[in-house]
Design goal:
225 residues; mainly alpha; Four Helix Bundle (Hemerythrin (Met), subunit A); two-stranded antiparallel ribbon; 6 helices; elongated
């Protein structure tokens, strides 16, 4: 068996000899050189398909909420916009920077720089946690001003948007934390490395989506009052 390549583009092709292997119907590559032809290789595309499916469902949820927000804002005179807490600008900066750090993390992994991958992943988790904390601070500031979810329709949507986004971001933080713990496990097989790269790609796509979603929500809440 040829030596396993370390880079992502090499891993897909190397390790089992020859060129790319044919796939079966489940998205695995078949290896005709061992175990009587029953050895299959995992395809990282399966992770990406899964995360895009999840993103599609999340996007539909927020599109529905945004439509309701726009319609409700023009429906009656009880719509009373609130002053946006300034800490939300910090939230926005944190999540934008976190998109940069997770991209560095993914690229470090594909260059077989495991130390860099771990460091950038830790930075992303810390920035993500900082984002969630800053959101909670914004809520606390509003409560001190006497602005609650039931105060008026605008405040209801504000809490709903930020809570829904925060919960989905927490899911991303848990996924990144899992990847971080998995960095301690040494990968000795081609399939193991493919799974690691596929998971990192999927997590990066999801994180970029949550970044873009927050920017869109922040602009909506700030400028569409």
């Amino acid at each position: 068996m040829a030596a396993t390549a370390t880079r992502a583009d090499q891993i897909v092709e190397a390790g089992l000899g020859g060129g790319p292997r044919p796939r079966n119907g489940n998205g695995f590559h078949k290896n005709g050189g061992g175990h009587d032809g029953d050895d299959f290789r995992f395809s990282p595309a399966r992770y990406r398909i899964g995360v895009w499916t999840a993103i599609g469902s999340i996007l539909m949820l927020f599109v529905a909420l945004t439509s309701a927000y726009i319609v409700r804002s023009a429906a009656s005179n009880d719509w009373k916009p609130i002053a946006m807490p300034k800490v939300l600008w910090l939230s926005t900066a944190l999540i934008l920077v976190s998109s940069i750090t997770i991209e560095f993390s993914r690229r470090s992994l594909k260059r077989d720089n495991n130390a860099g991958y771990s460091v950038w992943l830790i930075n992303t988790v810390v920035l993500g946690a900082g984002f969630v904390v800053s959101q909670l601070v914004a809520w606390r500031q509003l409560v001190r001003q006497g602005v609650y979810m039931a105060s008026n329709p605008y405040s209801s949507f504000f809490y709903l948007f930020t809570a829904a986004h925060g919960l989905h971001l927490l899911g991303g933080i848990l996924a990144l934390t899992y990847l971080l713990f998995r960095t301690r496990t040494k990968r000795t097989t081609v399939e193991g490395e493919l799974r690691r790269i596929g998971a990192a790609d999927a997590a990066t796509i999801y994180w970029h989506f949550m970044d873009g979603l927050w920017v869109a929500l922040f602009m909506l809440l700030t400028f569409w009052k």
